[in-house]
Specification:
Helix content: 40-55%
Number of strands: 12
Oligomer: single chain
Structural class: alpha/beta
CATH class: Alpha Beta
Shape: globular
Number of domains: 1
């Protein structure tokens, strides 16, 4: 199959490259420099020229707090550009695999969110990502939307790498302890997409939304502590800082985050046989990659 990956240089895009290069698919990778999805006409002409069987959209505006003041660009990238890609896919008859977020939910649920639960985003980032989902569905294209959460890896800018940097600079770190979610290893997201591609190849699949996230629910403070514990054990760091759990009120941000955004991965497990991302294994793999790299 001919596959077009949008967002080659991003965290997920780099992980997709690692996995797709091991397959026999004909994969074309583009970065923003080569194909800027904000330019609708150029996007359309380039995608039509490539004529892929499947488009994987690994691009997004992910600066959650910045989006509160930069609504235009967040909406352009996460919503309007996605709508344009959806319409192009509909016209070409190709599949669109799109990655969304747990931030489409308000975080008020005491149980894990399922795909059919009502979305109620509380920030611009979550709102624009949800509008992107709706636009894909409205376009009529064949699609797979994967909602995930708290993405980390050895690539790009993410919480794990930020903790390692701050841990070198400070002996004490005050980290939010009352926001709960499921950290997800980006390499596992990429592997999940590759597994789904095989089902798309066999044409035994209908459009739908799927949740895929980590197998452990924790707070940011607990996530940080696990990172430092593993980093010390693997000798990535010589000593670890003291992690102090604080409340959301003690660490105000421009964007409101969900208090609890646990995602249920039951549907993706029953449909594809895909297990939740192993958080500790993902942390270990990321740290080893950084140590060796």
């Amino acid at each position: 199959m001919k596959i077009l990956v949008l967002g080659r240089k991003g965290q997920l895009g780099r992980c997709l490259y690692d996995h797709l290069e091991k397959t026999d698919h004909n994969v074309i990778y583009t970065s923003r420099d080569q194909l800027d999805i904000k330019d609708f006409d150029v996007t359309k002409s380039q995608i039509e020229r490539i004529s892929p069987n499947i488009i994987i959209n690994a691009t997004a505006y992910t600066a959650v707090d910045k989006a509160e003041k930069d609504h235009h660009n967040a909406d352009l990238i996460n919503h309007l550009a996605v709508a344009n890609i959806g319409h192009i896919c509909s016209q070409l008859g190709c599949w669109l695999v799109h990655v969304s977020t747990d931030y489409v939910f308000d975080g008020a649920s005491a149980v894990a969110y399922k795909e059919e639960d009502k979305a109620n985003p509380q920030c611009v980032y979550g709102d624009t990502k949800f509008k992107g989902e709706l636009a894909i569905k409205s376009s009529g294209c064949k699609h797979i939307i994967i909602r995930t959460a708290w993405v980390f890896s050895e690539y790009g800018n993410n919480f794990l790498k930020t903790m390692l940097r701050l841990g070198e600079e400070r002996s004490d770190l005050r980290i939010v302890g009352d926001q709960i979610g499921c950290p997800t290893y980006a390499q596992d997201i990429a592997n999940t997409i590759v597994i789904i591609l095989e089902r798309l190849k066999s044409k035994e699949l209908y459009s739908g939304v799927y949740h895929f996230s980590g197998n452990i629910c924790c707070s940011w403070a607990e996530f940080a502590q696990t990172i430092f514990d593993e980093a010390l054990r693997l000798e990535v760091i010589g000593s670890k800082p003291n992690v102090v759990a604080i409340t959301t009120k003690e660490f105000p941000t421009l964007a409101k985050r969900p208090a609890r955004s646990e995602l249920s991965s039951d549907k993706i497990k029953s449909t594809f046989g895909i297990n939740s991302s192993d958080i500790k294994l993902g942390i270990r793999s990321s740290l080893l990659a950084l140590k060796l790299g």
